[in-house]
Amino acid sequence: MSVAAEFAKANEGYVKSFGEKASLALPPARKVAIITCMDARIDPAASLGLKEGDAHVIRNAGGRAQEALRSVIISQQLLGTREIVLFHHTDCGMLTFNDDGLRTKLKESVKADVRNAVTPAVDQLSFLPFSNLEQSIKEDVAYLKASPLLLEETKTKITGWVYDVYSGKVTQVA
Ligand SMILES: [Zn+2]
């Protein structure tokens, strides 16, 4: 059975107990956007006390602000969020590679007949890896605070945190 088929099976039980969630509003009730890594060990709802309807949770590799910006703008402009909480985490995969190495691996993985054609585009890609956890959080918070595209009234409510995958504890660093 594929994982997708397992999902469909599991969903049958979820639908039966869906209940009052059918009446949740579209805008997040707690007016907050969370940016965090896609890491499979992180459960933002459980670790931060979130319920359905509370928050936007924007996830990508590393929890990088630059990639999340599009979603944060939509969150602020169209759905009323007024605070941003950013998390990077210990043992993140983003600490394990650099752009040049991944570009080479990517080029080697594409079909030989298109390799030359995709090379210029691959060479311009940045995968936003980092080598220092606290520094990457501080950089991303600074990036958000400096962005002219984010609402000025929210700039004092942008914070950056470490999530420790070994204890589940969050610690503010920016
Ligand atoms: Zn990660």
UniProtKB/TrEMBL annotation:
Names of required cofactors: Zn(2+)
GO molecular function: carbonate dehydratase activity; zinc ion binding
PANTHER family named among the record's database cross-references: CARBON DISULFIDE HYDROLASE, CARBONIC ANHYDRASE
Superkingdom field: Eukaryota
E.C. code: 4.2.1.1
Record-listed Zn(2+) binding positions: C37, D39, H89, C92
Protein name as annotated: Carbonic anhydrase
Pfam family, one: Pro_CA
Enzyme class: lyase
Function recorded in the entry: Reversible hydration of carbon dioxide.
Native organism taxonomy: Eukaryota, Fungi, Dikarya, Basidiomycota, Agaricomycotina
Family of this protein: Belongs to the beta-class carbonic anhydrase family.
Cofactor binding summary note: Binds 1 zinc ion per subunit.
